[in-house]
Known about the structure:
mainly beta, four-stranded antiparallel β-sheet, 3 helices, about 45% strand
Amino acid sequence: MKQTLFLLTWILVTTIESLHGQGYASIPWVLRGSFTGDLKAVSCGSSTTCYAAGDGHWIKSTDGGLTWTEYTSFPINGFPFSCGNVQNVYAINADTVIFYTEFNGGSVLRGYRTTDGGQTFTALFDLGKAHRMEFVNDSVGYACGFVSFGIRKTTDAGATWNNVWTTSNTRLTDLSCPSAQYMYVCDENGHVWRSSDSGQTFVQILNLQPTNPCFCGAMGFLNDSTGWLFNRAGANAILYKTTDYGNTWTDLSANYYSHPNAGSGPPFVFEPIDSLNLYVGSLYSWNSGSDWIKDSLGSPANSSGVIKVPNVDRLIGVDCKFCSVGKIATKELSVGVNTDQMITESLFIYPNPTTGKIKVSAAFEQLTISDIHGKVIFYESDGNSESLISLENLSDGMYFARIQHKNHVINQKIIKYEN
């Protein structure tokens, strides 16, 4: 009878928890256009002006991603130059945009820059083979690339580029610039470096050699201290998270790769939307990488890019890389799920019922656990999803948890039982 009661309670609790934590995945994608040739990247220069690009074309929106116009060339000195196979697009602002493209199967790589919203372009010959790029403001930006050995910097909105740091025979695969002061960069051999002086000097903060040599394909930082490192190729696939400037890393690899749609090969998209919501390929996490669900525009593992429109509660997604038809869609975050609801739904205790050890699904400011008489038996402040809480010394029965975060309070019953 006791086991039956706990089983029924477990079914009830897990059914309730299954309604939590779905986050943005519960909001449908709305298709905004289909185009011949794939779409690999999307970028917004303002709340209204966005660009996307792929094989043989680029597209532009002036209404925040709702409608798009297609172009098949870069006008240079009055002549329509072929777009080639555009690999990435970076909108510095609404009018200044850099497209990075390849020709002849990748043997020729070149950047193209516009300062008038795409009416005219100039070729960037000194950008070199650096196709990963981030700007910290309208003037200063950095670039690296899988086929180059260092970092280039611009101080004139991408018009000219100069080498500022060079690695020793290792190709850089991605960089992330959360602020004008901090920069992180990773390479093909499992190394991560950090700069805290605007790219003047770098220190190595992670070396996965020789225990887990891997191709660190992508990284993303939300702020100076919190970021993720990702690769999904081969047996040494990883997903790491840091909250202390890269000094220590939490291994979330098993959480991601246990999903059947995790896929293989280098990442097409790794995009942290905020501290809770992450997109990696076709998978989405609502709790900083602890749990994953498929949320793509349709392709099983070929989603190419997901971004949030600046100052608008809207996501734009492009799909798919290496496909004959590229699609672009939007997701309205204010429809069905708002920010307050996202915080509430993303905070819960699991596993529940429990035999003794529990975790909270995301970061929290305060956690209080009380018994049925109201006596506080556990308290913790400033916890995170890695905090392991032991209830093993408590008697079987019902307990009450109170989780507080950002002026939100979530109350949850906890069932403790023995095997």
